[in-house]
Amino acid sequence: MNVFGFAGWSGSGKTTLVERLIPEFTARGLRVSVIKHAHHGFDLDKPGKDSWRHREAGATQVLMLSNDRWVLMHELRGAPEPTLEEQLHLLEPCDLVLIEGYKAAAVPKIEIHRPSHGKPPLWPENPHVVAVASDAELDCPLPRLPLNEPAVIAGFILDYLDAQ
């Protein structure tokens, strides 16, 4: 599986860009999966629902399924967070895995940088950033991609992966 990441400060537009890139890749016949790393807790379940009650009762895993989808929820219960490599092994084979977050992971990534947010760029300190997507002109030695043109960014990613 090809793996490509996106890094940037909170609110920079990582999720929006990934959301806009997925149709670009699927239109080219690629099967795409996404790993999103959250620095804060999250819950897909709702208090009071059967699956929530099972987890609250102490189940380590709860698998829910219907004729439309299935989801496996796994409670860490104090165990360490799985590594990115371990998470990649959980995915079914696909053509491309997009990683949102994991700034320090050793995968090629595009930094989403908006100078108007007042945050410093990540690329000077992160050797895994191979390009910067922005909505402004930047003084940067890396390729700069137009943040609002997902087709251009998708082309860059596929060209980059083909060259590796």
Automatic annotation (TrEMBL):
**Record GO terms (molecular function):** GTP binding
Pfam families in alphabetical order: MobB
| Domain (Molybdopterin-guanine dinucleotide biosynthesis protein B (MobB)) ranges | 3-135
Q: Known Gene3D superfamilies for this protein? A: P-loop containing nucleotide triphosphate hydrolases
InterPro entries the UniProt entry points to: MGD_biosynthesis_adapter (IPR052539), MobB_dom (IPR004435), P-loop_NTPase (IPR027417)
Q: Name one GO biological process term.
A: Mo-molybdopterin cofactor biosynthetic process
Which PANTHER family did the record assign? MOLYBDOPTERIN-GUANINE DINUCLEOTIDE BIOSYNTHESIS ADAPTER PROTEIN, MOLYBDOPTERIN-GUANINE DINUCLEOTIDE BIOSYNTHESIS ADAPTER PROTEIN-RELATED
- What is this protein identified as? Molybdopterin-guanine dinucleotide biosynthesis protein B
Give the species this sequence originates from: Thauera propionica
> What gene is behind this protein?
mobB
